[in-house]
Amino acid sequence: MKNGFIIIILVAIISSFSSCSDFLHVDNEIKDRLTIEAIFSNREYVEEYLANSYTYLINDNGDVGIGNWPFAFSDDMYNPQYKNIEEVKYNEESYQGSWNNAYMGIRQASIFIENVHVCDKVTEEEVIDFKAQARFVRAFYYWKLLQKYGPIPLLPEKGLDYTKSYTELSIPRSSYDECVEYIVSELAIAAKDLPMKRELLSISRPTRGAALSVRAKVLLYAASPLMNGNNDSYASQLIDDKGKRLLSKTYDEEKWAKAAAAAKDVMDLNSYQLYVSYRRESGDLAYPKTITPFDDGNFSQKDWPEGYADIDPYESYRSVFNGELSATENPELIFTRGQNQGDQGVNYMVLSQLPLRAKGYNQTSLTQKQTDAYYMIDGTDCPGKDMEIGRGDGSQRVTGFVSSNDVKAGKYKPLTKDVSLQYANREPRFYASVAYNGALWNLLNATLDIDKGPYYCWYYRGGEEGQSNSGNWLLTGIGVMKFVRPTDTNDDRNTGGATSHITKKADPAIRYAEILLIYAEALNELTKNYQIASWDRTNTYSIGRDVNEMKKAIQPIRIRAGVPDYEENIYANVDLFREKIKRERQIELMGEGHRYFDIRRWKDAPEEESLPFYGCNTLMTESEKEQFHMPIEITSVRTCFAEKTYFWPISRDELQKNIRLTQNPGWLTEY
Amino acid sequence: MRYSTLLCIIIFLLFLTDTFAQNNNVVQKIEVSGIVTDEFNEPLIGANVIVKDMPSLGATTNIDGHYKIKIEPFNRLVFSYIGFESQEILVKTDSIINVVMKESKSNVLEEVVITGTGVQKKINLTGAVTAVDVDVLKSSPSSNVTNALAGNVAGVLARQTSGQPGHTTSEFWIRGISTFGASNSALVLVDGFERNLDEINVEDIESFQVLKDASETAIYGARGANGVVLVTTKHGKPGKINISGKLETIHNSLIKLPEYVNGYDYAVMLNEARITRNQEPVYAEDELTTLKYGLDPDILPNVNWQDVILKDYAMSYRANLNLDGGGANARYFVSISYVEDEGMYKTDNTLKEDYNTNANSRRYNYRMNADMDVTSTTSLHIGLSGMLKKVNDSGKGTSAIWNSLTGQNPVQMPVTYSNGYYPGFNVSDIRDNPWVAATQTGYRQNWYNDLQTNVTLEQNLSFITKGLRFIGKFGYDTNNSNWINKIKAPERWTAERQRDDNGEIVFKRVNEEQLMSQSSGGGGDRREFIEAELHYNRSVKYHNFGGTLKYNQDSKVQTYNLGSDLKNSIPYRHQGVAGRIMYDWNHRYYVNFNFGYTGSENFAINNQFGFFPAFSLAWNISEEPIIKEKMSWLEMLKIRYSWGEVGNDNVGTRFPYMYTIGENMAGYQWADFDFSRSFQGKTYTRVASNGITWEIAKKHNLGIDISILQNKFNITADYFHETRTGIFMSRTSLPMIVGLQPGDNPRANVGGVLSRGVDGNYTFKQKVGEVNFTLRGNATYSKNEILDRDEGFKQFPYQYEKGYRVNQARGLIAIGLFKDWEDIRNSPVQNAWGPVWPGDIKYQDVNGNGVIGNEDRVAIGATTRPNLIYGLGLSAQWKKVDFNIHFQGAGKSSFFLSGGIAHPFSREQWGNVLQDVVNNHWISRDISGDPKTENPNAIYPRLEYGNVNGNNRQQSSFWLRDGSYLRLKTLEFGYNVPKNFVNKFKVNRMRVFFIGTNLLTFSKFKLWDPEAASNDGGGYPLSKSLTLGFTINI
Fold it and tell me: A401, A647, B450, B517 — which has fewest CB within 10 A?
């Protein structure tokens, strides 16, 4: 009996233990939730994980657009949204989303690279491609950081372990050259596994050309004066926590050779060419008959690609940007985010350019300096160029306006009656890029006929687009036409939401023209020959200042633009050619997010950005149109250059959390 | 799992009935009878007479003190009665045995306490336990037991912050706060199960213990780090039915409300606030005159809103009925109680028939504890208890009412316009007319329904080996609540400041009428407990030893409002084994070892279980022969020491080791325009925090117990030293380069806190003539220091929280007011929050950089929660009269004044102004005409209107106030109505009593009740209560 008790009690206790051994296990109740193992064993999920690693490229880490990425504007364009940047009135916490997003993208891509190989639901080729894509995008984030902040902390291959102590997670900045070396080698690895081309349904995935192009761009920056042999006091202050200089002190000419070789790597892929639209013998207002370019006796005699006899340079140039071509059709587009442009992309930029009549914001204006940069149709400078800022050649600005007789006589095409003759006879890219006073807006996509163009937009005070109490008028009286398609308008009469009547446009993050310009610019700086291995080390280039090579790069751009070639003496002279190449970049790449960084890497920003803005005298009414076209200083934007703006400040919050991080010179470190 | 356990219990029960049947032998019985009286020969009614070791065989004395019982011969009869010493008499044959009971001198050596492993004699205690005198809890007029803890229980720091009926819970912490983790509150066990202390009926409480050190709490393993409160409820005693009742009527008035200025003073100061900063005054001279003489109560009223909506007093009622008794095989305790707290708001009489808008609360508690002796060695206890509560509030709710009460100035609007229109305020709904908010906005009701069941089976296993016992427990609780809001709002109007040409008021309608609308919701949880214990106690000669082994598991799951997160439906679960081994030699040298091996479902498999050991030693010096011989007056002198580890598994986050992958994160479109080939994104939205486990407290306790001169003087004092490590924290200072999603802060066990302190209590009893005096006192002091904390890097060493107290207040150091412009020029630059004027607060440049800024904030003051709580009491008994007085105090606490109350007119004309400001603020000589009013030591700075300058509103030592106080907590008179009088009404005993609570408060802070530590005097304050009641025993 008593023994029975013991047995029962023991049974009771033991049974409650054994049956409860899984009492605390909760896995059964949540085992079907999404795990990382599930991600990498499911094809769809792998794609989704990869897709997310691209998303940080949008908005804050954009290349072309307007918004949290505030670099579309410098001495060339102006939008009131960036007044505080032009005036250097921003602080260490401004526009910091890119830092956070880039490092989030880096983490996401690193996890992907580490894990994707375990997935047996995707083919081996796909694994290789996916991995290369993640590697490309990770390198791209580093590049965007490097471009904006200068030298940045490089993380271990697998990313940072968040369980480590704060001291261990404090990673110092690597030097500019170390960053470049890392990014460049990563891009070369990615390039190896990326395909040459992407088809329609994967156009926003990178190709080998994209990887090699970013590589060329990174190397070009590394060779530029700000980073290469910079001995001024700014560079001496840009140091890591141990006092090591982050910008190289000694000039290394070979860096130019490497940049040139990298550009050549892209050119030798033979995958890209500049887009041209062929000569049109008849047309309408929106798609006019080709205005025959200048007869220089050379390009004008030959057909593309040797000359511009058979092409329409105006249509060629504008089609690259305005959505006329899809991304797939565009042979010069090397990398684009395609449809992934967030709410601050190219279309939003167009919205800010469109006149009020088209329900646009009518805000983005072009400076007089940028307007003057465009050549005359014959390749000469426009009369009175830059005279107000003390760079004139003694000539005066043209006065007078297009008369109705001129129009009848077919003179000054494409100008309409009453447009200032300052805008007459300019190179085709001028008409594709500049919305001068009296420019034509076609607005063909408007829902109602009454809202459609042709709309000649005038910026005189008292007119509907002129100076007013609102914020929606152009400070310089000169607008921006680049990226605007004849169809574009925001006037949808509420049929489909904002920007629905603006053609979707791929952002030209990298296009072939830029590669050509990189090649020309880099070659020009060389004083001797260098033997540089190609990206995959299968080939060795002999790189030197070869005028023929420089011509090979620059001539297609000039031809497509419908402007004559440079004189031989320019090709012969390093300094003259450098000036020309800078101006060519200023014109060709306007509005594509280059100018802000270019004038910094050239160390031209101290002069260029401190000059006041000039523009038309927007106080003048239509009856005072002569005065309207006498450029005056725009005093409401107090342009200036501060040395500290060479690189963007690092957030003080981040500096406090990563104690080994050092601030860029001139910015505050602590609260 | 549950089935198997149940099955075991059923088998066990079947087995026992078998045993029971066998034991039912028939033996010849004898009859014993007699009279039980006290020393004065008064018969004792209801005295217990039981056969020793057979509690089921018993009788009680009748109204004449007679008893009669049948027993087997050669047994001992035990006579017992509350307040008297028990007697044992050996009975051999039939006889009449008359017993004279002696009043007991309560003996410290016989006192028992209840610990985690069962009942222990206090003398054998080696850990730190406070046994709370339950009578003390009963003399609190609050319906909530927790409100009686402050100043009564050594080792508990407590604070009551609200007096709102139904919401009067005190926050309390055993030995203070020793962690900054998610939970710092104690584990509360009622009858061994984790239950809510707030809703328990105080009359049901048999004993209330606070376990403080590791040796007592280690068996709770991962849950005992913050201390444990053990409550046991009453059980029936064998004998005749014993009925007792208690009725109380309580008169509550609010302790102290902020005193606001009248309309005229308000308007004058408003003008001053404008003029003194070069702004136009608001009120013209003639308007001031109108206001002063109350000539236009519609447009320029003068309302004391407190008078308008607050009653002078509110009543509370409590009634309680207990029945207990039992017979040979079963005993029972049954109680029901009712508590009603009326609200303090005035109500609209016209609505009285419809519904109640007042903030009131009604609660019913019931409990039944039944004990059955299934066999002579087996007993079964069944406990059922429940609580029904209904809490009412006005439609806007109490916080909105107090917000409008502290916000609405006396001039803004009348209570109602003379034409009956309700005034409104067109800025926002929050700035409502307090009268409208309190009475015209409908009502809210909250219903609570808790049902608790527990079954305990005790089996004496002495037949296996002497001293062995088994206890099995099972408990099941369901708690439900629901709320219904029926909200409405009347049409409201505002009058323009100027009447029209006919002298009529120009009204503008600012709010449309909103008819009554309804919303509802609820909550609920379900809890289950299982426990199995083996106890063994044995004494062999001088060796006393004992052991306990215990298995337990519990689960608690939310049953309502679970949302979509899978994790919400997973019960919180614990499981563990625990044990204790005790040994003492001749009650002189004690060694104790305890352990808990417990686990929690919240951690990863390998981190679920932890081992928590503790040991304790004690030396009872008074038992040494030499002391016994030479110092016999020293009844007890015991030194105790304990060390142990305990955990805290409440980390505030479910399953921190699990990561979450976001399903529909940002994705990417791969195709060209007009085509689609896109993927949604997936990424970690919460990363896994691996290796996460509970906090660990390493506790030392050194204590001493002294009892001298036959219990005349008792003292217990403990010093404690606790190091808390592994406090669970979010890593909020990770640099962005780590690349986690925004807001994803992984967790880690990184924090550490050291806390030290003392607690103790004493009693001193003395008889002077016929009066018995007892003097009592207790104190708890605790101080903590953060040893480690996840706080990244800071610019200045004083900005780290490490090295300072948990919840240490921080602010600027104020060094008076700026005397004049010269003073401002000669001081460090102070414009971080706007330009400063003379009469504004001047701050100290702590880092000496010549600029005052946020980085000059340092640790100032203490914490809002007191670090010192003490109590002092005296009771006296003289014949039938008893008297008790108790003071309670709190120290080492501070709080900041802030909001509209400290900064009048900062919210422009929203915000009432304290009377205190009128004569105590800095006034420019240009306004007062007297240079003396530019008092650099004024309590309030230069007035200011609107939200222009933040300088004076920074948290600084200027606004720091001392939260310490001493109050006359309880004053009690009782009178025992003479027995021969009450007996005529078939009543055994009757006591009439009067209790006053919170009658006096002494504090440096005078504006409102300091215990609430309110920043602005808003919120439902505590009450001053007067209670009249009586108890009856039948």
Answer: B517
Contact with chain B for residue A45, Cβ under 8 A:
yes
Is B569's Cβ below 8 Å from some Cβ in A?
yes
Nearest-CA distance from B379 to chain A in Å? 15
Of B551, B553, B683, the CB nearest to A13: B551
Residues of B whose CB is below 8 A from A93: none
Alpha-carbon gap, residue A246 to A151, rounded angstroms: 7
Which residues make beta-bridge pairs with B586? none
Q: Contact at 8 Å (CB) between A352 and A591?
A: no
Identify the helix (H) or strand (E) that includes residue A478: none
ipTM: 0.92
Please give the average per-residue pLDDT across B497-501, as a whole number: 84
- From A498-502, B249-253, B770-774, the region with the lowest mean pLDDT: A498-502
DSSP B448-485: EEEEEEEEEEEEE-TTTSTTEEEEEEEEEEEEEEEEEE
Residue B72 has pLDDT above 60, yes or no: yes
Name the strand (E) or helix (H) holding B561: none
Question: What confidence tier does A340 reach under pLDDT thresholds 50, 70, 90?
Answer: very high
**Residues of chain B with C-beta less than 8 angstroms from the C-beta of A203:** 670-672
**Coil, helix or strand at residue B200:** coil
Q: Cβ contacts (< 8 Å) between A507 and chain B: which residues?
A: none
C-alpha to C-alpha distance for B861 and B644, rounded to whole angstroms: 33
| H helix runs in A365-439, sequence order | 368-373, 404-408, 428-433
Under DSSP, the state recorded for A513 is: H
CA distance B972 to B1027: 9
Q: State how far the alpha carbon of B889 is from the alpha carbons of B152, B153, B759, B870, in Å.
A: 10, 12, 14, 5
Best B460, B558, B684, B738 residue to mutate vs chain A (most A CBs within 10 Å): B738
d(CA B274, CA B140): 49
| B687 contacts A52? CB cut-off 8 A | no
Q: Average pLDDT of chain A?
A: 92
E strands in B925-988: 960-962, 965-976
Three-state secondary-structure class, residue B584: strand
CB-based contact, B388 to chain A, within 8 Å: no
Q: Do A204 and B668 touch (CB under 8 A)?
A: yes
pLDDT digits (tens, 9 = 90+) for B703-762: 999 988 777 898 999 999 999 999 888 888 899 999 999 889 898 888 899 999 999 999
Instruction: For residue B903, give the nearest of B837, B954, B838 by alpha carbon.
Output: B954
- In three-state secondary structure terms, A134 is helix
Q: What is the CA radius of gyration of chain B?
A: 33
Written as six digits, the tokens of B598 are 């417990």
Q: CB-CB: which of B8, B735, B739 is closest to A12?
A: B8
Helix axes A512-524, A254-267, angle to 10 degrees: 150
Look at A12 and B12 and tell me if their CB atoms are within 8 Å: yes
User: Measured between alpha carbons, how far is residue B158 from residues B169, B781, B1012, B1015 in Å?
Assistant: 10, 12, 11, 18
> Cα–Cα distance between A336 and A586 in angstroms, integer?
21
Note the pLDDT tens digit of each residue in A592-634: 999 999 999 999 999 999 999 999 999 999 999 999 999 999 9
The answer to whether A166 contacts chain B (CB < 8 Å) is: yes
Q: How far apart are CA A81 and CA A201, in angstroms?
A: 35
Write out chain B residues lying below 8 Å of A166, CB-based: 733-734, 792-793
3-class SS of residue B350? helix
d(CA B69, CA B78): 12
pLDDT at B928 over 90: no
CA-CA distance, B1017 to B402, in Å (whole number)?
Answer: 9
Axis crossing angle, helix A124-149 with helix A176-193, rounded to the nearest 10: 160
Reduce the DSSP state of residue A574 to 3 states and report it: helix
